[in-house]
Structures
1.
Amino acid sequence: MKRYVIGLLWLMCNTVSAEEVLAFANDAQRELYYQLAAELRCPQCQNQNIADSNAIVAVDMRQKTYQLVQQGQSRQQILQYMINRYGDFVHYQPPLNRVTIWLWLAPLLLLLGLLAVGLYRRRNEAAQTPDNLAGTPDELEQLIEKYRSKKP
Amino acid sequence: MRKLFFYAPLALFLLLALFLLSGLFSDPRERASATLNKSLPAFALADLMQPQHIWTAEQLKGETFLLNVWGTWCPTCNAELGYLTELRQQGVKIVGLYYELPRDPAFDAPFNLQTLQQDVSQKLAQHGDPYQFNILDLQRSLSLDLGVSGAPETFIIDAQGIIRLHHIGDINSQVWRSKLAPSYQQWSQP
């Protein structure tokens, strides 16, 4: 029994060591690599980042990113390298330009619209209430009288 | 004013419906290529069949041609070989960029050029050979520089070596007529 357990454990050790291990000169480079792998988008299997995807192009892009990180290139340089080849599409954080500005403006405009509607309605209500209430005490009196007189 | 508020949600809904409807007919793979209207990136890669010959971007200048990214492992590429061969017979110059698969040292046999050459010759004999020659992109370095996301993809490159069109997906008579032929004719005029 003991021998089987040890055998099993040994097998598990092997599967762990079969995983890809990348060496980095320092922690900052490791950090940068993982950050970029999470932020770069696979052009083949869309809606996956290159860290998640095993498409050929994602494997190549990971490898290229690793090379460029090792060469000491900055985050911006590596992003630009990929964008030059695969377009803005390849980065999960879109740049601010004439087309993408609506991503930020649309929710803001909706919020402003909602606020405008709310204000408009509130002002209307405020304008209407005094008129409606002006006659109320008298009307109430009349109603009370009416119901009182109905009672035997 | 009151009426306006009454119809606003309906108008918003219709706009949203239109937007989503247009999404049904759009191809998510269709996007502007980043390498369009740029020069063919510099490279030095061996010919697939005569590996002693090294092709460079400079050598490909002088005539408009189709650069077809393909591999024998890719079924869609094999399927378009027949139509591309027809195009070659009509006088279209087609150069192949052979997109070799990465190899996992744990599972795959090491790369062997002779096996690949045999494999390619067999496929081309079977479906037709549209290529003037094939450039072997073993590390997919030129493919990465071209912004290739997979195979098959096709570029139209003009006589000055400028990339004029980037098509993702296969080529058939319909795609050729509607998309590639107009561009090819435009750029192959002297």
2.
Amino acid sequence: MTLAFLGMNWQTLADAVSLGAIYALMAVGIGLVFGVLRLVNFAYGQLVMAGAYALAFAYDHGWPVSVGILLCFAVVLTLSLLLDRIVFRPLRAHSPAVMLVATFAIAFLLQSIALLWFGPLGKISASLAALNQPVTISGVDIRKIAIVATALAAACLLALVLLLGRTRVGLHMRAAAMDFRTAELLGVRAGRVITAAVLVSGVLAAIVAVMLTVQTPLVTPDFALRDTILVLAGVVLGGMNRLVPATLGGFAIGFASGLLGGALPTNWSQYLPSFLFAAVILVLLVRPGGLFTREGQRAAERV
Amino acid sequence: MRRTAALQLLAPLFLVGVAALIGTLVSTSTETYVINALVNVAIVVALYVFIGNSGVLSFGHISFVAVGAWAAGVLSMPVQEKPAIMPHLASLLRDHAIGNVPSLALAAAVGAAYALVIGLPLMRLSGLGAGIATFGVLEITHNVLRYWETIGPGLNTFSAVPETTGLLQASIGAALAVIVAFAYRRSRFGRLLSATREDAAAARAVGVSVYRQRLVAFVLSGGLAGFAGGLYVHLLPVNTESLYLDIPFLTLAMLLIGGATSLWGAVVGALAVSGVDSFLAEAETGIHVFGQPLNLPAGTRIVVVGAFMALVLILRPAGLTGGRELSFRQLRPLRVLTKFAK
Amino acid sequence: MSLPALAVEGLTVRHGAVTAVRDLSLSVEAGEIVGLIGPNGAGKSSTLHAIMGAVRPAAGAVLVNGVSVVGRRPEDVARRGVALVPEGRRIFAELTVEENLRLGLAGRRRREGVEDDLARVYELFPAVEESLRRKAGTLSGGQQQQLAIARGLVADPEVLLLDEPSLGLAPRVVDLVFQALSAIRDRGLAVLLVEQRAQRTVALADRSHVLSRGELRLTLGPESAGDTEALVSAYLA
């Protein structure tokens, strides 16, 4: 009833939740790499884009879905490792601003390579299009993909919590994100920790690529670009320095943009990016540590 | 001392002059590239005034170019053309038109005013925060100009704006930007700001307000960027998309490749990258080089410029952080030139 | 005669134009504590950082059991049996005490014997065992220092480097830390102790080197502990 009053329906709400879930995964992918490398990976969206092209390529050739997904993972992970070796590691010693501009350049580079390779018109990846069909749950129609995406994201986040909390490499990653120098002095393998973070981040990008191509089957060179910009904003909004606030920030911005985009009339929703970015700037000015960080944590970070 | 100072001004001006001279010698179609390169010089010099002197990153400067272009474009379009392109324009803007030079002055004023509004809160930030926040400004400006048809053409293109930015105006404009940037760098403000870039804590300790010095540079740089936007809209029919992600990237690349901390670096970077970019743009449509047909696929230019910029940043980030040694030989000529100008 | 566990020969460390350590030589045998004392900026911490590979020495050699570790990364030096208890403790405040200890295991060379080593560490520092589940940041300064030393010990090192472990601690806690160091020596570790508390260090250590402006000025045995302050200040004046 309240929903109807706000001009929304359950479908919009489910879509908003699933968009939030996908953005949360992207936020984790960006946040993990930032944690160990202090590098804001502007090119994260282009990893997703590359995965989406892999799916489209497989669809084009009539390969089965599983092969397409496998190819998507292979492409994204290979590209992640390449970026790590060629770009991220040489940049480690530099200032965050230099690293941001460099990944900005890489983003453009990858996008232009896609443009060169596949042309501006885009490719179709529709092998999982059936997921766009609605299912009816107690009289409410909800698209399958909304459920699948939300469940998959929840499963990924749970797996990540276990990885970070229960395994040796997870502990080392957390320690490296807090104080890389001391972790190295204790014998933590810096290279292994970075590789692990980059790989996990790549796996998440590949999963996001699969989910996003279901919702947007037309893969163009700027695929996932808008999403990445929004997720980056969400990560800053939540709190860049920590994974949980960053993830919450990613979810919040995906949920908000899904909800408002679906519920507001067009002449309002077209200004959505302005409101979101105005909010980001406001947070940067008022709470530089992020919205979802506790006071004590932020005090500790400043030390 | 005085000779060095004269060189700091004359060397960039000389380059602008050479570019202008080349423009008079080539065919009309190539001349457009030269004019474009000169407008790029104005934009990159505007970037230099803030980024180069303060050491703070800004992705947002193309916002000032955009509002400058909007101000000049909206007001200099002939009154009878306006309803077709901008049907929802506010009546004040719809019923008046101004000439070429006033429109450029207005563009500069609007750019500076917008920079003041943005800078008042944002100049408290630095590092990553400044990078993200200025990117947010770019997003907001793009978004608003794209949909708010009361103040401009929205998604339409600025056709019917008098194309007054020829070789003459572009050269004068670029030279003017260089002179303003030089005068600022030599002024008390410029010297204080670059002191904060070298060591913000030490500058604060002797009573320099980092915030105020950055704000001054931001507003001046916004004014120059707005002015460049005015030149731009009088050069070719722009729209919001032509002032979105490509131009911020390309101009930032020009500044960083040239070397962000010197005016000379800014001008060299703008002309060199514009030159390469123009050549590749031509090659994308098919040209002959030494009798060999060369036909590059669309998108090659950004691949080349992007790869070059990434290489420079990875191997030699000195452009941004100032004055470190070169680590690979290819760029040595550039450094020698930069040294020479200092 | 066996090789010393740690040998530093002709070590010179520069930070840009400043020479922090000049031609320093010292060695530490197993079952021995060597003190390194001197005023702030004397080059004590730089020496430790150079041994760990956190800064690259301009000249000189660092040998662990006779094998050079110069040019190796800190993580590799740690895995050769050198553990550093860093200045300011550098524990991970948001991880639990247990997780901090598990991080110490990263530097171990052998997988087996973890339980035994943990038991021996708990014996030395019962306070650490009592607070395994607590966030390390909630511990008192003295407990954090004990945790930092414990974290170094669980790596099962042959050489233990300590950078001002008594800094900012109450006298009673300093006693506890120094007693623990003595017990660690008895277990056969080679201990290099950087300290500003000259008298206590000289009394505890088998020998103590006085460092000033990066150079070794004076070596004292425990017998000089009574008049250390006078000796040191006379020398450094």
